[in-house]
Amino acid sequence: MVPDYHIHTPLCRHAEGNPAEFKTQARRLGIPEIAFTDHVPNPDGYDPRCRMSMEEWPTYRNLILDQQTVEPPQVLFGVEADYYEGCERFLRPSLSNQPLDLVIGSIHYLGTWGFDNPEERQVWDTVDVTGAWQKYFELLGRFAESRLIDVIGHLDLPKKFGYRPPEHAIRDMAHPALDRIAQAGLAIEINTSGLRKPVREIYPSAMLLALARERDIPICFGSDAHKPEEVGDRFEESLKLAREAGYTQAVRFSAHQKTVYPLP
Ligand code: ZN
Ligand code: FE
Ligand code: FE
Ligand code: ZN
User: Fold this and answer.
1) What is the pLDDT, as a whole number, of residue 47?
2) E strands of 89-233, at which residues?
3) How far is ligand 2, taken at its centre, from the CA of residue 74, in Å?
4) Which domains does the chain have, with CATH numbers?
5) Ligand (nearest to CA of 109)
6) How far is ligand 4, taken at its centre, from the CA of residue 188, in Å?
7) Which helix (H) or strand (E) holds 196?
8) Block mean pLDDT (10 aa), the chain, length 264
9) Which one of the ligands is nearest to 7 CA?
10) In angstroms, what is the span from residue 28 Cα to ligand 1's centroid?
């Protein structure tokens, strides 16, 4: 099995199970390493219902560092950070003050619209779908260049509810974003949470993963587990997707540094 680098904790108020239970599940599956990457606290009022508060940083840190015992799997300390206009102002000090192993950078908002939030799903019926995707990839490119993050999370998240332009249009708009991701030396994750969502697909699609492979963008794996039984969810499908795209290796992280390992 390969490391699972995308795991949440109940501190985000929409996950269940304690970190020890996530770890136990990983050990049961023979996963050698996991990273907790809970939603980063935000002082600007972005969705306080689904993240810890700024005051909870130390609680989160201690919760994760407490899991770093001799018992396998190894446990990494990470976060999933969101991007929006102006977020660097607080994200930069916030992230550099923590002994983080990795930061996943994800876009969950277009303006104030939480486009992947089930409660805001109906907004998709009222917007220009292609325009929304275009805006998404522009923001992703900007986030890639921010030097705040190590991994791009769920690369084609806007497909979550099935709203998407034709594949050739996605290809055209993803091109520049992937160039910027490659240029910044970031990895992307193969995230199986899409299999549990209406779209029923892994993020990213085979087409986008092939474009990433062409640019030598490294990969890692994530379940986006919000409960212990989701750890390592259907990683065999992720491995198959990676191999079919031509990948033979993936990366591990420690203190923001990547090392390569061969795919099993
Ligand atoms: Zn979440
Ligand atoms: Fe996310
Ligand atoms: Fe997540
Ligand atoms: Zn996520």
Assistant:
1) 87
2) 102-106, 109-110, 113-114, 151-152, 187-191, 219-222
3) 23
4) 4-262 (3.20.20.140)
5) 2
6) 12
7) none
8) 97 96 98 98 90 96 97 97 92 96 97 95 98 98 97 98 98 98 98 98 98 98 98 98 98 98 97
9) 3
10) 23
